[in-house]
Amino acid sequence: MLTGKIFMTNRRHNSFFEGIGIRSMFIVIFAALGGGVAYLLRPAVPLIGQLPFSIVMTDGKNLHGLERLAQPYAQQSLEYLIAGVVIGGMIGIIASYLYALTQDDDRHHRTPPRP
After folding, report:
1. What angle do CA 15, 19, 25 make, to 5 degrees?
2. Distance between CA atoms of 28 and 33, rounded to whole angstroms?
3. What tens-digit pLDDT sequence spans the chain (115 residues)?
4. Which of 1, 5, 80, 110 is 20 to 30 A from 66, comparing alpha carbons?
């Protein structure tokens, strides 16, 4: 029984999630998901379609000639992307808070170990 306690203790301290914090992981994962969804839902340029990621991330600054007509769409797509990351991050903060509440409840309701 003693070896089981040592194994569980060592494993808990070496866990990847314990090192960086599972609550931080909620925020990062939800922010990335929000950005991904926003990127997929970005507006399309008429007759062309959605702009490539490189043009969206540069806000359309590297467009020349007639391509400059697509710059407002690139700017709007970047705004969608930023809004998606922010909204996803806020949902991640709420999820991490709810996770912390459930963990606190579990800690309070556990029975103490028997000697």
Report:
1. 100
2. 9
3. 455 554 455 444 445 555 458 888 889 999 999 999 999 998 888 888 888 888 888 888 888 888 888 888 889 999 999 999 999 999 999 988 888 788 765 555 556 667 6
4. 80
The predicted pLDDT at position 14 comes to 46
Task: Name the residue type at position 94.
Answer: I
Helices (H), the chain: 2-13, 16-20, 22-40, 53-57, 71-109
**pLDDT, position 3:** 53
Buried residues in 34-44 as b, exposed as e (16+ CB within 10 A): bbeebbeebee
CA 16 to chain centre: 17
- Find, among 31, 95, 43, the residue nearest to 74 by Cα: 43
Q: What angle do CA 31, 36, 38 make, to 5 degrees?
A: 95
| Residue 37, both tokens | 């969804």
Query: What are 78's two structure tokens?
Result: 């970047």
